[in-house]
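One chain given next:
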Amino acid sequence: MTRSGGSRIRVMLADDHAAVREALAVLVNGQSDMQVIAQAGNGDEAVERARRTSPDVAVLDLSMPVMSGLEVTTVLRDAIPAMRILILTRHGEYHHVQELLRAGANGYVLKQSSSEDLLQAIRVVASGKSFLDPLVAGQITQHYSAEAQGHPQRPMAEEPSPREMEVLRLVARGYANREIATELGISVKTVDAHKANGMSKMGMSSRIELVRFAILQGWLRDS
């Protein structure tokens, strides 16, 4: 799933520090393939401006007044399913990442990472994939690996079919069911069935379990 027609990636920036937003806007607008179409200084503004402008990618600070990045993610995931959500924060702790992935964020970048990492993240999530900051991904993988050793995954009752695995990969990367249906040329109802059947065969009951599996399998690092 790549962007068609060579159009620019339309980006919204939400951060309560005006200087940070301005610096990010200069960086993003300096790219030939992306442009900032909206800015917000708190979570409430982020929701309102995202609803009004429908950006391709919303870059959200995790710690914002009025509504946090987590709360904004939860609201916007339901309000604008096609929009990609990228979290930009100084917090790389496992529980922050887990909460954001569970809420439906498509990417997670640390503010202390390079500008190139942020630009890559915007492009990756805009193309429909997930992005985890390299500094965060290693920590999460270690955590999940240690957790898996203490709580081994239940054996699969049955191997998922190739189409079920294809659907699960897209779900783990943050695609909405409607987008998966369009990409694979099947109905939304069929997507629901493949997802439910695949997760049942793998002994999973939630998206966060699927994302955990995807990280360990390297699905989110695929180009």
The chain has a mean pLDDT of 83. The chain has two domains: 9-135, 153-218.
